[in-house]
Fold this sequence. Notes:
Layout: H1 3-6, H2 13-21, E1 26-30, H3 34-47, E2 51-56, H4 57-63, H5 65-81, E3 88-95, H6 98-107, E4 111-114, H7 121-137, E5 141-146, E6 151-153, E7 156-158, H8 166-176, E8 180-183, H9 207-216, E9 222-224, H10 232-240, H11 253-261, E10 264-269, H12 271-287, H13 294-317
Parallel strand pairs: 1-2, 1-10, 2-3, 3-4, 4-5, 5-8, 8-9, 9-10
Antiparallel strand pairs: 6-7
Bound molecules: zinc ion.
Amino acid sequence: MRKYEEYGFVNTKEMFKKAYNEKYAIPAFNFVCLEQMLAILEACIETNSPFILQASANVRKYIGPIMVQRMAQACVEIIKQNEKQIPMALNLDHGLTFEDCKSCVDSGFSSVMIDGSSLSYEKNIEITSKVVEYAHKYDVTVEGELGVLSGTEDEVTHTESYYTDPLLVEDFVKKTGVDSLAISIGTSHGVVKIKIKEGESMPTLRFDILDEIEKRLPGFPIVLHGASAILPKYVEMINKFGGNLKEAQGIPEDQIAHAAKKAVCKINVASDGWIAATAAIRKTLSENPAVIDPRKYLSAAKEEMKNLYIRKIKDVFGCAGKA
Ligand SMILES: [Zn+2]
């Protein structure tokens, strides 16, 4: 038995195949703390949605690799306790080195991402192939990335972005053997995804690039990072209760929903969870200045994140009831 199977995780193969054929996307929810993990778990159980629980290399440092692993295993047990059969993958988000990925494969992750997108094309192929070769020995699926997203992803910052060249995708996938590919079609990391000048309207994602990629690689699962909506209600709540988020601008959810019906099989959600949590905590503390019990404001954060995830699953990704 594969190590990840011992823990009850699945790799992303079957999940993506079904998502591709039935035209929806699997949510890949990043977690950084217990409350966020509970929000993800409860949202997916309530909606009967398959999901990918995602930890970045930095979160593994923050919480500790053993704790990340045990928390993820606990999710599987809680799903069983609820008498549900919900497929759950545990994925490393933005592994930057071979060692990051190897340590996740060795500790029982069912999926890893190797992000060589800031390297030269040749170096990206080299490191991605090395990770694929190792991970596939253990049946762990691998996500690569081609094209650069601007913004800050968990302490990794790119100031420039460039779109994925559809002409390179086929070659990259063939040479590396990756199971899925993150591409750049106009999404970006962080809360300022697009800077819109006054009078300008919201630009749309480059669906022409996505279509071109799908034409060249039919049936191949595509991944979107930096696809948070940065909902204005949370930005307003944060700023109303003492925060200072400037120029926050996300990707409209109708565009993400459109991508989910195409070759996009996995959509990452990180920033949207963070701002929902921060808005709820700021509001709770501001309205209840005598509160000292962390459960009071952390549970408010959990509920807000859970509501957000349920809405994404139902209205944006189309994956409710697909477990
Ligand atoms: Zn990312």
